[in-house]
Amino acid sequence: MEMSSVKLEAKTVSKSSPLHLKSSYEFRHLLADWSNSDEFSSDDEMGSEERTQLTGASKETTTVCKAYFNLTVCVVASALLSIPFGFDKTGWLGGIPLLACVGLLVDYTSLCLGETCMKLDVYDYQEICEISFGKFGRYIQATTQLSLSLSLMISYQIISADNLMGILRTDWVKNALISSIPLNTVLVLLLTTVVILPLSSFATLKMLGYSSMISIVSILILALSLVYFDITREPINTIDRFGGEVLTGLGVFATGFVCHQIITPTLQSLPGDNVIAKKGNYHKVVHLAISTSFIFFLLVGLTGYYLCHDAEGVRNCPGNILSWNNPDVGSIAGNCYGKIAMGMFLITALVAYPLEHFSCYNTICRLLYGEWGQPSKLLGLTIKLMLVVSTTVPAIYLDNIGPLLAWAGNLAAFPLGFIIPLSLALKNRSVGGQTSLFQTLLRSALLVVSIILMILQTFQNCSSFELL
Questions:
Q1: 161 with 184: CB under 8 angstroms?
Q2: Burial class of residue 52 in the structure, from the number of CB atoms within 10 Å of its CB (0-12 exposed, 13-18 middle, 19+ buried)
Q3: What is the pTM of this model?
Q4: Sign of dihedral through CA atoms 195, 200, 201, 206?
Q5: Nearest to 185 by CA among 169, 156, 162, 153
Q6: What whole-number percentage of the chain has pLDDT above 70?
Q7: What is residue 427's three-state secondary structure?
Q8: Which of 108, 286, 313, 445 has an alpha carbon 20 to 30 Å from 164's alpha carbon atom?
Q9: Higher model confidence: residue 94 or residue 53?
Q10: Highest mean pLDDT range out of 209-213, 226-230, 383-387, 456-460?
């Protein structure tokens, strides 16, 4: 009877008004210790699924290959179409080492974040931030994650409308534009209403997970299409080696590489009988995913940047390399391979939107209700609807996602991918064994450099983009 009252109390606490993440962390470990003790009665115990939910001790794992595949897709698909825009700002010779440096830094900070997760035995980004820096850390992480996800959601809506116009490319589309009909607005609203809103409101992550193969195939087709058009076009006179807005390009590259919001669940799902084995698998997945992403970014970035130049070397590089109304790139839509690439990227964008939407919804719910609480069904649907509306309005008025992703890299990707992981590693350097002096100095230096670059990016973006 006494044990029943303890169990009832645990269940009551878990479903009461919001438990903040730090207290829930302590409660979960206390409950895990109790549920594994000899006093736990098998005749009176809660179900294994319920115990897993309360203790956070998820047993669901994935393979190293699948984790690498999913992480690569999440990295590459986010800003691939805007990487040529980044090279437009940095120049091809300046952009290559800059892209490599961003990839190396993301690789390193991902390992730092994973190390912190394993030290604290916590696999949730928000929770780690609150354990380390209190509620302030939790709110900063949530704000930057929301900003990055919302920016990507807006870009997916713009890409969807652009690609659909490129696929159609019929006389009535041209006549509609000549007649000043807001065709882009109509297509954004149509795709949002018919596809995006239902998927975001009712689709599950398992249903959306099957889009990974489509994303990889569309990326390959896109890269091959750009190579084909570069080879078959007339040679151009010159290409700028260096650009005048390097920091703006840096923001685009950062938006493309940063994936730290999904690093923690990826690490938790990896197999490993002990910490060393799990750490080895995690390092392997991160190194392979970032290396593969760099290859895709470099290939699409350089071929797309070359394609954006006319015969005299004058460039006109859009934020979406498949943008149909670009005078040089627009010819892609008239080719079978180009239409296939546009169609598959249209599907990829429409499926990627709900994934970012799910991330935003989950972040908001945890801010409002804590780790254990959930809104009512009606309120949940209302929150989901408001998220879609909040991205649809900007998507109607913005016609170039390049500046949007540059700002997202500056204000969201840099804090989420560089500043916060490095700060967490320094804060918890003495947990589970002292970090070496070299690692401490390296992380401190990278943290200072990241903050300085973020500030400099802000000034350059303000001078480069009067209005998105």
A1: yes
A2: middle
A3: 0.81
A4: positive
A5: 162
A6: 74
A7: helix
A8: 313
A9: 94
A10: 383-387
Average pLDDT over residues 21-32: 47
| CA atoms of 103 and 258, how far apart (whole Å) | 9
pLDDT at position 455, please?
93
Q: What is the mean pLDDT of residues 84-99?
A: 89
Closest CA relative to residue 111, chosen from 417, 454, 453, 427 = 417
Query: How confident is residue 25, by pLDDT bands cut at 50, 70 and 90?
Result: low
- Dist CA 451 CA 454 (whole Å): 5
Residue 165 CA to residue 237 CA, distance in Å, equals: 31
- Token code pair at residue 364: 């908001």
Q: Within 13 Å, how many C-alpha atoms sit on residue 91's CB side?
A: 11
**Could you tell me which of 300, 340, 290 has the C-alpha nearest to residue 320?**
300
What is the DSSP annotation of 113-157? HHHHHHHHT---HHHHHHHHHHHHHHHHHHHHHHHHHHHHHHHHH
Angle formed by the axes of helices 125-168 and 336-369, nearest 10°: 150
| Gap between the Cα atoms of 125 and 149, Å rounded | 15
Rounded to the nearest 10°, the torsion over CA 215, 218, 220, 222 is: -130
What three-state secondary structure class fits 30?
helix
Residue 218's Cβ-count burial label (10 Å; 0-12, 13-18, 19+) is buried
- Whether the per-residue pLDDT at 205 is higher than 70: the answer is no
**What is the rounded distance in angstroms from the CA atom of residue 60 to the CA atom of residue 49?**
11
